[in-house]
Hints:
Order of helices and strands: EEEHEEHEHHHEHEHEEHHHEE
Helix content: 25-40%
Amino acid sequence: MLEIQNLSTHFHINSTKLFQKLTLKAVENVSFSVASNRVVGLVGESGCGKSTLGKTILGLTKSTEGKVLYEDKNLLSLSNREFLPYRKNLQIIFQDPYSSLNPRMTIFEILTEGLLHHKNIPSSEARSLSIAMLEKVGMKSDILERYPHEFSGGQRQRIAIARTLILEPKFIVCDEVSSALDVSNQAQVINLLNDFKSSMGLSLLFISHDLKIVSYISDEIAIMYLGKIVEYGNKSEILNSPHHPYTFALFSSVYDIHNRKKKRYVVKGEIPGVVNKPKGCYFHTRCPIAKDICKEVDPPLKNVSDTHKVYCHFPGEIG
């Protein structure tokens, strides 16, 4: 349904020490696809470029190069006017439920702003659709004239989900939607998204650093490190047979209450800076199996199977 090809996003920043412009490569040459009614989990450490990738796919952040293909159209080559018909089908749920809702707007105005803009329906119909959507996310209709500050974080995130789903989108970027919530609210929000995915045929790019949640909700998993996808595959392959040392380290760090003697591998060292990235494989400074070639040559794409790909000179050698 959605195909991302060689997508890159770079930012130019001014260096006060060197008096020159530096290039921050937030996203580098990323390629993957999202099928209909599927969830792709995007995992990586904070600052690796996950949110930037999600916003670039939707055109909220300008790309440096690459394509995002939807219905045989490269969305990134379209003007704002040409992109407009696709907006209702491609939506995002932001990370922070406290800053993503306009505090000066009522819940009714928040829910119907996009609806009135994209579908041009009368206000009475918009109200009935709002009431129906609130009921679907487990909230009462009498909140329509209230304001965001009157609600908890979990309730606000439900409102944000309702605002997104009322447009009946086909694809949603879920940007750390559960990270600001407590455990009980996390479970409710994740189950809510899972239900809507099944009932509405949604496709999701689920961005998170919570490996348990990603393992639960995803169909495919992409592992990101310093702006690059280092491994991609269906969930069972990534969980049971990771081939990149970074992927192995991530999932071995998850505590398994049913297997307390499970061998754990901890990544040592600090993540390199995003401006001055290492030469060759970016992970070689922390990799226990790195060899001389890893320090000089960017790792090629290797196919472990038809659905499992990895960027590594020595895939599967750790474990």
